Amino acid sequence: MSKAGALDLASGLGGKIEKTEVLSAVEQYERYHVFYGGEEEERKANYTDMVNKYYDLVTSFYEFGWGESFHFAPRWKGESLKESIKRHEHFLALQLGLKPGHKVLDVGCGIGGPLREIARFSSTSVTGINNNEYQITRGKELNRIAGVEKTCNFVKADFMKMAFPDSTFDAIYAIEATCHAPDAYGCYKEIYRVLKPGQYFAAYEWCMTDSFDPNNSEHQKIKAEIEIGDGLPDIRLTGQCLEALKQAGFEIIWEKDLAVGSPLPWYLPLDTSHFSLSSFRLTSVGRFITRNMVKGLEFVGLAPKGSQRVQDFLEKAAEGLVEGGRKEIFTPMYFFLARKPLSERQ
């Protein structure tokens, strides 16, 4: 895992956005969301701009607090956050049946933490697609440092319309990424197109569970907090994801919410009542220190104006995620393994 320091956090804040434009970008991003009068349809129509702004603004924070793999994981007692994240990635590779020589696609790859881990674990070549230029630049540098630049690469692309030919990849996965898609069917259909017949697509999806009540104002508030804090146009129900997969042509092999039955809750790293030395920066004390550090960096001009605002909506996201997890109305790890039939009629 990356261990970015305070100056790395400051220099990366805003990503590819001009430092003088960061505050304006924060304000534009916020206006997409419910808390600032935004509408779901507007978020979907402008998802490319919204998600790009989001990751330019937050990637430095993510790497500082979380490491190179921006995702949750079910966790065993006595297991560190880092260990659980690696195991979660290995599990995905095993479910896909990855073998040396396979050509694999990571849909929405972030800065490539899972990509590098899965490539090394399975001796495969992994291509990561990402529509965010800053994350790709950062990911290429981390590939070079890890020595995997010959087997791992990045392509700037929108996963709703990829430039790859039909039936290009031996396996495809997505880790907490396709939740950014404005339309699940359109996204899955494009993944189906570039996957070879008879091969597998596996994903961890962010979903509202069957316990979510759209008429419950508290539930709606939690959903809105997660959407603004995580750059999401809308959070789908698990059943909607399954239906979209079937409509796209996939055969469902198996599916399960992996948050159910986890010995330790997935949201534990964000729970302010929990303290951990191994993930100190995510604890209430660690977040307090980060908040004041960002405020100080912004005050002296090392971090751009608006940085504190980014920290604020990430805090809002953490609150929504913890409450969503406690009430079991949200999961970040709805897993499915799906297969593209050998023929359209199969």
TrEMBL record:
Position of the signal peptide: none
GO cellular component, one term: endoplasmic reticulum
The UniProt record lists the keyword Zinc: no
PROSITE patterns given in the database record: SAM_MT_ERG6_SMT (PS51685)
CDD domains, alphabetized: AdoMet_MTases
Coiled coil: none
Protein's GO biological process: methylation; sterol biosynthetic process
GO molecular function: sterol 24-C-methyltransferase activity
Protein name: Methyltransferase
